[in-house]
């Protein structure tokens, strides 16, 4: 038989152990209840075009759980052709939209309090496209030639005006023709001498159709802020953590796509109809490969250049694309980027 003192000591030790185990169980239960009390926050991201491989970073971020890791339940809302770019975000149907800096300044000049919070495309994607054997060697050679554009709107029109201005030319110096979104057949059939298009799209289609081409980038003529994440100021002030989370997850999607383009195409198959076709997947990979240089940056991913914003605003004002004064410093911020 054990001495009474030793038995009591063992009972006390067991009691302390049971107490510690009970406290640990209560802590674990409390942590579990806290997690259950914080459901994923719903966020709708507007993508200004039909499902397309050019939105791969968003699809990748969703497919790999980057948004969920940030506590978000993300819905993508793709716009229909002709839909007002900012109509849905103003109506409360979208929380964040993918849009270009020039579009933000134009909207702000009309009174929309939009804020550009992270840059995704680091190079403006449009340019002049000419047949490889064309006598148009530079923008300065355009007088006396016809240039096809979808119309006097959007990135292709802004890009053309930037290139003309940098070359010391005006619209009146060139025969500009509105041809709708028919740049490829128009150039193939010699209806125009040159077209404005997206450098990751029309040149690939023309080369595939058998017409070698040369391109001249609008970004080389004028600083222009391309597509990034945009929110209304009211939403930004009310949901700063959600904005940070969307930016962080999306930029992870960008980096993964840059590093793994073939896997990005595979991951996008659940989001882009038709990618199950081997031919369509090959075309999508070609577009994606041509898009990667437009996303790459030698600086901080997501960061936007204040000097470029100032230059772009001055340019847009000079060509009459702003409806009124714009405070450029209120149009963008780098404060919500990952540290």
TrEMBL record:
It comes from the Bacteria. SUPFAM superfamilies: Periplasmic binding protein-like II (SSF53850). Residues 52-264 form the SsuA/THI5-like domain. The keyword Signal applies. Keywords: Signal. It holds the Pfam family NMT1. This is NMT1/THI5 like domain protein. It comes from Sphaerobacter thermophilus (strain ATCC 49802 / DSM 20745 / KCCM 41009 / NCIMB 13125 / S 6022).
